[in-house]
Structures are given as structure tokens and as C-alpha cells.
Design a protein that fits this description.
Layout (H helix, E strand, L loop, with lengths): L14 H10 L5 E5 L3 E6 L5 H11 L10 E4 L2 E7 L2 E6 L4 H12 L4 E4 L4 E7 L3 H6 L16 E6 L2 E7 L5 E7 L3 H12 L3
Antiparallel strand pairs: 1-7, 2-5, 2-6, 3-4, 4-5, 7-10, 8-9, 9-10
Helix pairs in contact: 2-3
């Protein structure tokens, strides 16, 4: 008999601890893993209008062209990572469709790589979310400097991450490499005790 492989997220063992933190903080803080998100790295020339139009039509959203911004349409979003680089995000299971659409749009003039297995995502939400992240992050996460619709590649507690400030007020998504996920989860839980 052949055993079936079971897909397991990097932070599967943390759901109870995250829920306990949410209860003990009286709603000021919620931590939750967003496992298995589709994540596709896209490189293209933003100065080529025909390429940008084709990508827009293929993805169904405009790529953000301003540094450290995010754009969303429906269940997809794009994070600006560099002058010619974006991280395309979607619900689990959409990588093949996004890869196909963007490769067709680029017609060999850029690159498309499924990096879904590279990172997991942590939702950090609540009135104390920004304060918690500020303990380990050098960038100013206050809404006046890093409001909704902003994103940045940075270090959080010495782990390389991408932080996205969601449109929904005091909610952030932290994208962390799978190999650093448990380290960062432990750090967040420990730092939350100081709030």
C-alpha cells in the first residue's frame, strides 16, 4: 500500500497558540496563518505599454508602478518588489492559471516563477498589530508613513519578510520564508506578551 502525502503548512501547529493570543488580548491582536497562498514572481519591463496592457488583461489587475505599493482586483493582488518585479498573490491553487496568463502576456519578454512554496503568510491584525510589528522592524509602520495599500521588503526580528498593510485598517500580512516561519511565529508570540 502506498501512503498518500499530506500537505502541511509551516505553521499548522500554531493555530491553537494563535487563537489563545487572540482571546487573551481581548481582540487587540489576532495572529493567523494564511497557508498555501498562490505566490508568483513576475519580472517585466514597466516602460513597455503593450506588455503592461497584456499583463493587465491576463491578470485582471493593474500592476502597481510606484515603489512599495500594492494593487488588488477581486481575489488577486500584486505587490511592488522592485522597478521591474512584482509578487502576484491569489487564493491557493491559482498558480498554473496565473503563470499561463502572464507567460502568454509577456511573450518571452520577462519571467514568471511560481514561488508559492517559498513563503507562508501571517495575518497580524488588531489595534495592537502595528505596535507588535514595530518591536522588530526598523521601518515606520504608522499609517501616516505606511498606510493601507503599502508594502515593503524588510527585516522583522532578523528574518527577511515582505510586509503588506492591508486596505482593512490595522491589518498586516507578513510573508516569511517557510524555513523562518516557526522562528518568526515564536518571536511574535513572545513579543505580544510585552504589549
Amino acid at each position: 500500500m502506498i501512503a498518500e502525502a499530506t500537505r502541511r503548512s509551516p505553521l499548522a501547529d500554531y493555530s491553537d497558540r494563535f487563537a489563545g493570543l487572540s482571546r487573551s488580548s481581548n481582540g487587540r491582536l489576532e495572529l493567523r496563518e494564511l497557508p498555501f497562498l498562490t505566490q508568483v514572481n513576475l519580472r517585466a519591463d514597466p516602460s513597455d505599454p503593450s506588455t503592461m496592457q497584456a499583463v493587465r488583461e491576463g491578470l485582471g489587475l493593474d500592476l502597481p508602478l510606484h515603489p512599495n505599493t500594492a494593487a488588488a482586483a477581486g481575489d488577486r493582488s500584486a505587490l511592488w518588489l522592485g522597478p521591474d518585479e512584482w509578487l502576484i498573490l491569489a487564493p491557493p491553487g491559482h498558480a498554473a492559471a496565473i503563470e499561463e496568463a502572464t507567460q502568454k502576456a509577456l511573450a518571452g519578454s520577462g519571467s514568471v516563477v511560481d514561488v508559492s512554496a517559498n513563503r507562508t503568510a501571517l495575518l497580524v491584525k488588531g489595534t495592537a498589530a502595528g505596535e507588535l510589528l514595530a518591536f522588530g522592524c526598523a521601518i515606520d509602520l504608522h499609517a501616516r508613513a505606511f498606510g493601507p495599500g503599502r508594502c515593503a521588503q524588510t527585516m522583522l526580528a532578523r528574518a527577511q519578510v515582505i510586509i503588506e498593510h492591508m486596505e482593512a485598517g490595522s491589518a498586516f500580512v507578513v510573508y516569511v520564508r517557510a524555513s523562518f516561519a516557526t522562528y518568526l511565529a515564536e518571536w511574535l508570540l513572545d513579543a505580544a506578551g510585552a504589549l
